[in-house]
Write a structure and sequence with these properties.
The protein folds into two domains: about 15-60; about 65-150, 2-Layer Sandwich (Alpha-Beta Plaits), CATH 3.30.70.260. It is about 40% helix and about 25% strand. The protein has helices at about 20-35, 40-45, 50-55, 65-70, 85-95, 130-135, and strands at about 70-80, 100-105, 110-120, 140-150. A four-stranded antiparallel β-sheet has the order 2-3-1-4. A hairpin with a 6-residue loop joins strand 2 (about 100-105) and strand 3 (about 110-120). Helix 1 (about 20-35) packs across helix 2 (about 40-45).
Amino acid sequence: MDEKNVKKFYLIREDVLPESVIKTLQIKDALKENPELSIYEAVREFGLSRSAFYKYKDTIFPLDEKVEETKEFTIILYVHDKVGMLAQVLNTISQIHMSVLTIHQSIPMEDKATITLSINSAGSPTSIEDVIFELRNIDNVYKVEIISMSM
């Protein structure tokens, strides 16, 4: 495969995005919510040039939008090693109507471990941000990160 045609993807937090990219996402949302709104009206409303909008519109997507398309992602949980941790995590995943595709739990070191889960979100209305929030709220989970998505 020609390396020039291979596109790389990155996960990036919203707070570090340039203002023009954030406005592009807002415009895309506004256009989706109101099909009668023209691109010209939307860019004027959000204070962005049409050229900037066209530059970014096909290159930036909310994470949930990609999850809706692909339905699969992998997360890692950093946990304090306590009896029943994996069961609590799996119960939480089940309660939000998602399926676990693969599980890996590391050997605990200094009372800390990791749990890596590949998850299928097909059939679940829960957003990926809500999944992370729910998992972070489990006692003895101190960090949750997305490490990959199918695209």
